[in-house]
Amino acid sequence: MITAVHEAARDTIEVGAAAGAYPVFVGPDLLDQLPAVLSAYASAHRVAVISDDEVGPIHGASVARRLVDAGHEVTFLTFPAGEASKTRKSWSILTDDMLKAGLGRDCVVVAVGGGVTTDLAGFVAATYLRGVPVVHVPTSTLAMIDASVGGKTGVDVHAGKNLVGAFHAPSAVVVDTTVLATLERARRAEGLVEALKHGAIRDEAHFSMVMERTESLVAAEPMTCAEVVAASVRLKAEIVAQDEFEGGVRQMLNFGHTIGHAIEAAADYRIGHGRAVACGMIAEARLGEGLGITETGTAARLSEALAPLTDRGRVDVDGTRARQALAADKKSRDGRPRFVLLRRIGEVARDVGWTHEVDDDTAHAVLDAVVGGW
Ligand code: NAD
Description:
Elements: H1 2-8, E1 11-15, E2 22-27, H2 34-41, E3 46-52, H3 55-69, E4 73-79, H4 88-100, E5 108-113, H5 115-127, E6 134-138, H6 141-147, E7 152-157, E8 160-167, E9 172-176, H7 185-202, H8 204-218, H9 222-242, H10 257-266, H11 273-290, H12 298-306, H13 319-327, E10 338-339, E11 342-344, E12 347-348, E13 356-357, H14 360-371
Parallel strand pairs: 2-9, 3-4, 3-5, 5-6, 6-9
Antiparallel strand pairs: 1-2, 7-8, 10-13, 11-12
The protein binds nicotinamide-adenine-dinucleotide.
Nicotinamide-adenine-dinucleotide is lined by residues 52, 54-55, 58, 81-83, 86, 113-117, 119, 139-140, 142-143, 146-147, 150, 152, 162, 179-180, 182-183, 187, 191, 273.
């Protein structure tokens, strides 16, 4: 039966993980393969399908129906859409609902949605009865390219983004690129920021490929999306397989995220993750250029590639809160933020390790400048 899944997928990427390697199936029209994927990689009679209340009625319900038709007992749970729901409160409601439904350790969580859903439902799976398997069915460009792969799960807290969470690798990931047709165009575009990031840190050819295909990607052309998602997942998989728990090379995936997360937190998460990371990538490239570490012109190339994907205008945030969030970043040491810096597009600078300490004045200057628009 699993041979049929491999045949149906345009690409299958194996991701190495301590708990066992897992496949990421990528291609158009893959949702029908979900029951077969479950029986091969996360066999369980009872399934909790978790979606937000926008994706739930469109894709969550159709996933649940397929699983019921295949003989599973399904508990279908939703939460209000948006980053504001990626909280301990949502986690407690979902886990209480699962307990009420009597789901035992032999259940599996199927997360159907964007990155908020894969992070939140992944954290539910990581902690429910000390851990049950999770299968991700990402429905946003960002979740397909990035959030569903690598096993990072968690929630946001007042002090900052993703500050409470766990590593919990999925048992399998099913990426059906036809579901992107229902995602707003602007969100499809923003999700591609992370694909450009993968190219910027690791592979200049990938960066150029995403730039060249931007129009068909934003138009949700399923085969082009499958090609680019698979290539991006392959780059991320190579990195996380080497360093699942972020002691070394995985830190490079945080390029653009030190400043990006600070902007998101200061904006109370009313700004899209992709837009915040785009600001972060520009600011951190400027930072590197200013320090003589990043090749001159890198920020301008990033700006050219990112401009069709997201709003470049002023971001409405409180500067003091952004600085506080910067100091609370997970990579900070002694309250000083640390940054992944590029050498050039396709390569990260490693002069002093994966991250560089930068003095507060310099960091605040690039933060303030990018918040004003780029
Ligand atoms: P999201 O999950 O909030 O989705 C954005 C919006 O699009 C939501 O309103 C959602 O309901 C809607 N949506 C999603 N798919 C849809 C579809 N196919 N049709 C119609 N509507 C759809 O946000 P996101 O941008 O997908 O993800 C952002 C989150 O991902 C952030 O919390 C970020 O921290 C996280 N993230 C995690 C990792 C990781 O490694 N764990 C990596 C990158 C980002």
